[in-house]
Amino acid sequence: MGTEKVDLEDEVLARIERQRKLRPRFREERVTMAHGAGGKATHTLVEGLFARAFANEALAELNDAARIEIAGARLALTTDGFVVKPLRFPGGSIGELAINGTVNDLAVSGAEPIAIAAAFIVEEGLDADVLRAETEAMAKAARAVGVSVVTGDTKVVERNKADGMYITTTGLGVRRSEFDLSGQSIRPGDVVLCSGFVGDHGMAIMLARGELDLDADITSDTAPVWEQAAALMETAGEDLRVMRDPTRGGVATVLNELALDADLGVILDEASVPVHPAVQGACEILGIDPMYVANEGKLLAVVGPERAADALVALQAAPGGEHACVVGAVAEEPQGMVLVRTGFGGTRIMDMLIGDPLPRIC
Amino acid sequence: MKYVDEYRDAELARTLGSEITALAEPGRHYKVMEVCGGHTHTIYKHGIEDHLPESVELVHGPGCPVCVIPMGRVDDGISIARQPNVIFTCFGDMMRVPGGNGSLLDVKAEGADVRFVYSPLDALKIARNNPDKEVVFFAIGFETTAPSTALTLMRAKAEKLRNFSVMCNHVTIVPPLMALLESPDLRLDAFIGPGHVSTVIGCRPYEFIPADYGQPVVVAGFEPLDLLQSIYMIMRQLAEGRNEVENQYGRVVPWEGNLRALDILQRVFELRPYFEWRGLGFISQSALKLSQEYADFDAELRWDIPGVRVADPKACQCGEVLKGVIKPWECKVFGTACTPETPIGTCMVSSEGACAAYYNFGRFARSKERAGA
After folding, report:
1. Quick check: B367 and A333 CB within 8 A?
2. Which among B155, B175, B172, B174 is positioned nearest to B164, based on CA atoms?
3. pLDDT of B307
4. Closest approach of chain B CAs to the CA of A249, in angstroms?
5. Measured between CA atoms, how close is B291 to chain A, in angstroms?
6. Least buried of A87, A132, A294, B79, by fewest C-beta within 10 Å?
7. Average pLDDT rounded to a whole number, residues B141-168
8. Which of B321, B332, B364, B367 best tests the A interface by mutation, with the highest count of A CBs <10 A?
9. How far, in Å, CA of B272 to CA of B281, rounded?
10. Is residue A3 in some structural domain?
């Protein structure tokens, strides 16, 4: 191949890179379901509209929870809306999900959950027993992690306007890590840990909707990860670079965000990621990659190599972390991308989620 | 997973890889086209190319049924979806495909009742459950999915369902292959035949490829070892100077195809004189429409559709990319007018199309190439 051609190829690639690095703008005429899926479209919406409009230091980090400091107190603040359909599903329900989801956003930010505010948007005609059951589920989940629901709001909307009920929560936590956990702190040679089986929640919801003639014994993994996060912070100290909970968009999206934030490569060893056979089977039939499926009780952590082994042991000893394992590593290359080593002995690039295989999962 | 893991063994893959390498003539470059989008998916998902020597290149063919639908057909579908009282159904991956002015997903956001289904029978169920609505199924796919559409239509007819119709975009596999082979600038050495299509049509329809064009065809299954084995079979044919149709996917594909399915296709569909393919232009007798007997269920007759024809921009060179004449980055509109967010040709529409893959991961491929050099 002549030099001229080679140069042209580099030129084209450089142009694509420049375009890719431009801050996204939200130009769409209408919002589509993809904007809520946690993948590329969500990023465009959040970064192109919200982050531009509300521009401030805490928001700019676009973390699971914002880090704020008030009178020397190092706090974390997060908020989350829950619109899951159906309200109850194998392994959990909207109330439990609302508490655990909020707790987990705080936990992966290194913050111990202290207080939660909850807003209920309830549909006219909802069976009051459903509301009682969900309130009880929230109370129970909150007690389990020692967090209090300290304030709230109630709205009722007309029939058929809210699929039973929606819950919005805001969580306040106190940051226990003296170090700033951040995606930008990851370095080549760091180790990626995963706290257990992935893909359970998303698949449980999909099957619970009953739209597919598919039966499988899959239950949601909704659970708090605070104790796992605390164990990691204690054991790994400053070697704990960052923690994330792989909810919408799954493990694939979290790893892509890390790779992009740090402009480093993340190498994922596909065969080492724990996936229940039933989840694997359902994904296979539906043509979905479990790495993109949501989790509601898992965390991913990046730890420096020196303390990775200790961190893994600590994670395995924490409740819900029994199946934790090393799933990958950080490398210089490929910059800004996730490289998967497949079980078949090959490699592929794992992109961010495009579109939405499954709306309304949390 | 039982019955799946057996076909994904890394050790066997390495063995096959080195046998393929041993068959490659030094100094010769091999271009093998996998026709089917399902194969392309398997190749990416499992990283099959890492087991192949550099001299064996896989060219991703025109067999992604979603990507070949021209913009005008999408626009026609959208015009039906916008009609009041219509529930418009299609496969999930069709929803994101852009027409001349937006996708079905956009129309859904505007308020149209667009739903995705996993089977045309699900669309029929929706029609039964919503007797006061008109339910339209946007049918796509090669001979693989056409029989299930046909079966659905037969049921609809038997049940005398008045509120169900099909907008038929089913295409056939042989005409585009012939069109590719007819082009004088084609640079291919062999074909990996589509496994699923062949469960219906069998292996005989490909016999013209070795007979008239002197190229081997191996019909392959969809697990990674199936593909490696089929590449091995192709390399052996080339090494031994043979040109034949071989069937690697014998556990599923009968040589004569599925006669009952073919019979159903005959009854429900007839050939269109021509059909437009995204990026490839018009190809004669390359698509199906509903036969006279099923005309009552033909959405194109039931609705007054504009019959939009949105010309592929002249600068789009999907045809050349598919034929292996140029690389994606050599196309005039690549990365400027044509990007994954605003795709023009079929190679950019699917995330696994040659152009989309190069757009997203080309930088990585290039650095790997440099490291190897």
Report:
1. yes
2. B155
3. 81
4. 17
5. 31
6. A132
7. 96
8. B364
9. 15
10. no
How far apart, in whole angstroms, are the C-alpha atoms of residue A80 and residue A98? 8
Find the CB nearest B360 among A32, A280, A351. A351
> Does A345 share its domain with A217?
yes
When pLDDT is cut at 50, 70 and 90, the band that residue B369 belongs to is: low
Query: Looking at residues A218-241, what average pLDDT do you find?
Result: 97
Residue B49, chain A, CB below 8 Å: the answer is yes
CATH of the domain at A288: 3.90.650.10
Residue with tokens 């329809």: B205
pLDDT digits (tens, 9 = 90+) for B59-94: 888 888 888 888 899 999 999 999 999 999 998 878
Band of residue A4 on the pLDDT scale cut at 50, 70, 90: low
| Cα B78 to Cα B86: distance, rounded to the nearest angstrom | 11
Residue A78, φ and ψ in degrees, nearest 5:
-145, 160
Residue A101 and residue A219 in one domain: no
The pLDDT value given to residue B143 = 95
Domain range enclosing A101: 66-175
Structure tokens at B176: 């585009």
Nearest Cβ partner for A13 among B48, B351, B362 = B362
Q: Are B14 and A345 in contact (CB under 8 A)?
A: yes
pLDDT in tens, B89-103: 998 878 878 888 888
On the CB side of B81, CA atoms within 13 Å amount to 27
Query: Distance between CA atoms of A283 and A285, rounded to whole angstroms?
Result: 5
Q: In terms of CATH architecture, what is B1-311?
A: 3-Layer(aba) Sandwich (3.40)
pLDDT tens, position by position, B158-196 = 999 999 999 999 999 999 999 889 888 888 999 999 999
**Spatial contact of B106 and A32, defined as CB atoms under 8 Å apart:** yes
What residue ranges do the domains of chain B occupy?
Answer: 1-311, 318-372
Mean pLDDT of B279-296: 93
Contact status of B39 with chain A (Cβ, < 8 Å): no
- Whether B329 sits inside 8 A of A8 (CB atoms) is yes
> Which residue in A281, A342, A344 is closest to B1 by CB distance?
A281
From residue B337, alpha-carbon distances to A190, A214, B50, B65, B348 in Å are 39, 42, 31, 23, 11
Q: Do A345 and B51 touch (CB under 8 A)?
A: yes
Q: Which residues contact B150 (CB under 8 A, 6 or more apart)?
A: B264, B265, B267, B268, B269
Chain A residues with CB under 8 Å of B335 CB are 12, 15-16, 19
DSSP string computed for B51-87: GS-TTEEEEEEEE-TTTTS-HHHHHHHHHHHTSTTEE
Chain A residue with the nearest C-alpha to that of B97? A355
CB atoms within 10 A of CB A306: 12
Residues of chain A positioned with their CB less than 8 A from the CB of B108: 32-33
> How far apart, in whole angstroms, are the C-alpha atoms of residue B349 and residue A83?
31
Nearest to B345 by CA among B278, B296, B256: B278
Per-residue confidence (pLDDT) for residue B74, from 0 to 100: 93
Higher pLDDT, A354 or A262: A262
